Amino acid sequence: MKLKKNIATSEAGFVFNPATGDSFAANPLAADILARTKAGQEAAAIKADILEHYDVAPGQLEKDWDDLLAQLREFNLLD
Amino acid sequence: MKLPYERPTLRKLTAGMPNKFGPRAGARAVTALDGVAVAELVARFGSPLFVLSERQLRRSYQAAVRAFGTRYPRVQLAWSYKTNYLNAVCRVFHQEGAWAEVVSGMELEKALGNGVPGPHILFNGPGKRRADLERACEVDAVIHLDNADELHLLLDVAAGRARRPRVALRVNLDAGIVPQWDRFGFNLENGEAWQALGRVACSGRLALVGLHCHIGTYVLQPAAYGAAATKLAALARRCAQELHTAVHYLDLGGGFPSTNTLKGAYLPATDTVPPLDDYAEAVAGALLGAGFPPDELPLLVLEAGRALVDEAGSLIGTVLANKRLADGRRATILDFGVNLLFTSFWYDHHISPTREFSTAAEPTVLYGPLCMNIDMLRESIALPLLAPGDIVVVHKVGAYNMSQWQQFINLRPNVVLIDQAGQPHVIRAAETLEYLQQLEAVPAHLL
């Protein structure tokens, strides 16, 4: 997963694409994932951290991770 | 201890005119029905599960009686069987004092089986067979005549009977609303109804006791009922004056809305549906002003169905899966579909989660489990981030779903009634494959 370079994110979950003018609201976990991705953290490390801290099964996280990727692609936020 | 998890999601923000009207946005968790935990109901009776509240059934009935009875001195409710003819439901209303309004021979037998005396059964419906009419005559039910062929068939059935069958004439009329329902009964404005009344009166074989009309369904204009009552009352007075026949009751039918929101409505029904008191005011005002002598006021009969039962019913279901559609929309698959929630064709049903979520919500398409494209429960609903296994409750499903449901692809589930003491009772057991196949037969060459 690689976010487009120009995508702006905030800690509160506001996501803005200056190329299209589209804006989005991310829930806390999505905002956290986007921030870490922007900071260059690898997907595997982010997932491991989520599994360590959140009450979620690995299989469920994988499904939801794929779904988040699908959303980011749909919203044209990925490189 | 680990943090509670909620799947990561994004919601596109769209600019538009804010709507400051309407109810609080966002879904509130409903954890119990009539004091019984939803989780306990699912554990005991499975999912999906229809739940009826006896307390709400009685409350709705009493509210309707109060609305009309405080405005007009002679009121009788007749429970519309087709709306929900589970015997337990019918018996609650009969205990409260309701007569029965039936529309088929099968419903007539159900009403008799529920202990309703024949004279307290009003037999509507456009498709009565000869055997139905004979049975109605036998038990002295009141036959609401729908068409000329039925009238002549009944005259034939009545010939030679010691007791004249009691009848009411179904009348359709212009109550000032569109569409004007004209498929039931005889038209008033073109003289057809008067002609039929003359034939009934002159036949000597039938006893005319009532006039009936049913102006529509989910009618949102109380004034239309006032207009119908005025016209029906004028017709009754004409019967007395010209045919020397006293009409004992005027039946204004049903069609009163519940607070379910119709598809396409801009505002929720809770904000737009008039209270039953407005309908009562319109009808009572029309009848009291119609010129009847005080001691000859006809009985006002109402065939309420939806308004009495809708709110008392809930449907509990479970999330089976989530998926994303090709256009990016979220879709959730539930364990019930249009097979059980027939009214989702008409209503945008209110659906609640049963546990607390964050305020994050995602527009979601709700599908049922049927392998059919039509099996869509909501085209778009803002729901919290439900996961497989989460339980939801659909509200106000008491009307029509438990009579129009289909055994299609899946078997029909348990129905429970929570009594006034908070005890759940199974009033219709979940179907089994054996039950489903018991009427089937396989020819010998296929065995």
TrEMBL record, chain A:
Pfam families: PqqD. NCBIfam families: PqqD_rel_X. This is HPr-rel-A system PqqD family peptide chaperone.
TrEMBL record, chain B:
The keyword Cell membrane does not apply. Gene3D superfamilies: Alanine racemase (3.20.20.10), Lyase, Ornithine Decarboxylase, Chain A, domain 1 (2.40.37.10). Its cofactor is pyridoxal 5'-phosphate. InterPro entries: Ala_racemase/Decarboxylase_C, De-COase2_CS, De-COase2_N, PLP-binding_barrel. Residues 62-309 form the Orn/DAP/Arg decarboxylase 2 N-terminal domain. Keywords: Pyridoxal phosphate. The keyword Transmembrane does not apply. PROSITE patterns: ODR_DC_2_2 (PS00879). PANTHER family: DIAMINOPIMELATE DECARBOXYLASE, GROUP IV DECARBOXYLASE. This is Diaminopimelate decarboxylase.
